[in-house]
Amino acid sequence: MSLQSRKFKVPDELANLYDFANTLDVRHFTHRGVAHRQGDGLGSPRELGAWMSQRGLSFTGAKLTSPMLETALRLRAGVRDYLQRDPAERGSNKDTIRSLNEALKPFPLAVELRGKDGARLKATREDALAGLSQVVAELYNGARDGTLDRLKMCASDECRRVFFDRSKPATRRWCVSTLCGNRMKTRNYRERQRHIG
Fold first, then answer.
1. Domain boundaries, given as residue ranges, for the chain
2. Global pTM?
3. Which of 8, 30, 40, 57 is most open to solvent, judged by the fewest CB atoms within 10 Å of its CB?
């Protein structure tokens, strides 16, 4: 679990998935006079390895390669595309589902019985990317128990950060209402005023 997932109280069961989706930062707004800097936390195999290591997802000493990075980036793109959809519509967008399913193929999982702890999904990959199977397992478990519906992408085009919706009705649209929500509401208000005047 990262500082960000702790700060925003993302459940442990979705923390790696949340962090993985947010390794791509496309925010492009100015807050209190400071322009936000965009970035990609997975810009190289080394950065991917560091990200996985920080989360305890490095199971082997094997080296990550450029093709492995491309596989990880396809997974991230598929996850982000899926999470940007309204939860009620995620299952009906055939292109999104097809793309995500293709990105999931390199990360097969097997069921492993754990005695008193029940069963868990375990990576069947044995190379340097095996740890990303934990992200895939979180996606599966969240979809199965419904918590994935609370993992959403901010509706602000200037943000697009993934957030966990902790509201009771699970109807939040922005990662931070006082920032992204206010910016969107202010912009919409100004647009309406421009059309009136």
1. 3-196
2. 0.88
3. 30
